[in-house]
Amino acid sequence: MLNHNVHIPIANTHDDDINDPTAPFNELEPFDSLWQALRWRHVRTRVPVCFRKTIRNRYMLANLVYLCYAIAILIIDFNPNVNGSADTSTLDTLCNETPSTSILDQPVCNTPLKWSNRILSLGMACIHILSAFLYWWAWHDRTWRDVIMIPEYLNHLEAGLYLWSALWYSREDTLGGYYTLAVHKIELAAALVEILASFGWIMSWYMTYIRTLGRGFSLDDPDTISYLSTSISSIIYVIYNIQINIYPEQYGTNFLYTYGDIVYFVGACYYIIAALRDDHWFWFLPFAGQYGVAVGRIHVDTRSLPQFGVPRVLITDLCCRKRKDTTIKVNNQREFDNGNSIVTTYL
Description:
By secondary structure, the chain is mainly alpha-helical.
């Protein structure tokens, strides 16, 4: 049975969270129902605080750009007027004009790239770079040498590779052409970098997420669904690009990447939900499925909650630690040699 009368001290918290009345671990008033939580006096107290936190939240800005990017990808995938698939009659005629040629010598006719589509592809690549920069900028309280910044650097590299491939879309001619195959290789490299960044974001999340009730490796935490969606979509992109590099003739007819785009969009939505959760917009939801429980009055015997991440590790610490360990070993060896040396005196 939960004890509603025990107040636990909060250690290792940020000052703004300690003074934030909307933070769940500061919530001392239990709500018996959704309607009670949405009473005007609660809305009037909490909404302005949450709104101020959201408009100052750098992650929210990055997540909104990320969501717009995911929506634009879906529009390109499934809107015939945008991706050019509405003009299939002209394209089919063009493809059937030279049936005797090798399949790799046939024109890239199933992926029509009009001038407007090329501009759209370049625009999407630029938005990708902007998104990568915003996520890097969001770590305002971390030094650029922190290990959690490695996925952000990989994200910039991935965005640069996709921009490179977008610049070469206009040079694609045949399925086996030089630029067509080069685009496949560039995008495969970008997909491999993306999957490394995806697992790196899991590492970053593990090192920084707040250790408190309702957070962690659980599907109840929207962060978990977000990084799982990002990782799954990255795996799908890698599989698709491997298939296209092995079978170039499938270019324009293999739509496996669309499934990755759908999962990518789901992850973008959950990133928005996670950002809203971090700004404490969901005070009206039940805690662990139970109303009548004030999170701030729950006593946990095992540890003091919340705890903000784990100690910071810098990229250069890895080299410094290795050099320090080597120095310690050398000093220990010298002390051992001095302690066991034999001095011989000749009279």
